[in-house]
Amino acid sequence: MIILCQFFACSNDYQIKKTSWDSSLDYFSENLENYEVTYFVDVGTKEAYIDGILEIYKLPNMDYLDRIKVTEIEFFNRVDGLQMCRIWGESSKSGTLNHLLARNCKDLTDL
Fold first, then answer.
1. How far apart are CA 99 and CA 102, in angstroms?
2. pLDDT of residue 102
3. Range of 83's domain?
């Protein structure tokens, strides 16, 4: 019984360390206890990993918005079943914890 309990406790500790996506991103930046959303941003790649740096630009003119250091990758399913993820990171501008929202995410942790 103890071995079974330890197995299930360890399974909850899984952390996604790398992800990819194949669609546009949206950027949520904390602003006075609310989030300001910038739709259609680009980071110059379709992959992110823990401790990686992503520079965020607003499309279509590629205006610089921010830079984040990735701290966490969170997966969830939309109501229609679409795999989505939040790529959390600390903003170099404000120091707040902001995130990118991506669609069609894939876990690349063990690849």
1. 10
2. 97
3. 14-107
Q: What are phi and psi of 90, to 5 degrees?
A: -85, 130
The number of helix segments (H) and strand segments (E) in the chain equals 1, 9
pLDDT given for residue 110 in this prediction: 87
Count CB atoms within 10 A of the CB of residue 6: 10
Q: How far is CA 73 from CA 21, 41, 81, 111, in A?
A: 12, 18, 18, 16
Asked if 90 and 71 count as a contact pair (C-beta separation under 8 A), the reply is yes
Average pLDDT over residues 88-105: 96
pLDDT at residue number 42: 97
Q: What is the pLDDT of residues 17-76, one digit of tens each?
A: 999 999 889 999 998 778 899 999 999 999 999 999 999 999 999 999 999 999 999 999
* 91 domain residue, yes or no: yes
Number of domains into which the chain is organized? 1
In a domain, 57, yes or no: yes
pTM, two decimal places = 0.85
